[in-house]
Design brief:
It is built from 6 helices and 5 strands; from the N terminus they run ααβαβαβαβαβ. The chain is α/β, with parallel strands linked by helices. The two termini are 23 Å apart.
């Protein structure tokens, strides 16, 4: 594959469309998500597997930089003792494009049992994650900009 200016423009066009589509989908769920996070008296915990986990780490880092106590926990590690870092007053943001990452199951159950607010970032409103969440934000995209359709470049 030859890289040129036209390929760069194609990538940017896809990403611009994804942002425009997201803008058009903004709803009361966005306000509820913001209200939930503003009301958080403790930490904002982020979690996700694979690329979603990397995005979660970045969000946690940005929140911490702006004065919101936040951290990332790996969902598999949470099942082996790290759930203890989540306490009353915290909120959890779980990121899973499919909403079906089985690694999130123990954390989802923990949030429900301890009444910890859960915000889901997913593309599937009917997924296990979305159904368990207090608030769901739709992160679906029509197309990824990656020419191999592998890397989550637009989502």
């Amino acid at each position: 594959m030859k890289l040129d200016i036209e390929e760069a423009k194609r990538v940017l066009d896809i990403e611009i469309r994804a942002l425009s589509d997201l803008r058009d989908r903004l709803s009361e769920s966005f306000v509820k998500a913001c209200d939930m996070l503003i009301a958080t008296e403790g930490k904002v915990i982020l979690t996700g597997v694979g690329k979603s986990g990397h995005i979660g780490r970045k969000i946690a880092s940005t929140l911490s930089s702006t004065g919101t106590p936040a951290l990332y926990i790996h969902p598999t590690e949470s099942s082996h003792g790290d759930l203890g870092v989540i306490s009353k007053g915290d909120s959890v943001i779980a990121i899973s494009y499919s909403g079906e990452a089985t690694e999130l199951n123990d954390l989802i159950t923990f949030c429900a049992r301890k009444d910890i607010p859960l915000l889901a970032l997913t593309s599937k409103k009917e997924s296990a994650l979305a159904e368990a969440a207090n608030v769901v934000l739709d992160i679906s995209v029509a197309e990824e900009a990656c020419p191999l359709k592998l890397a989550p470049t637009s989502s």
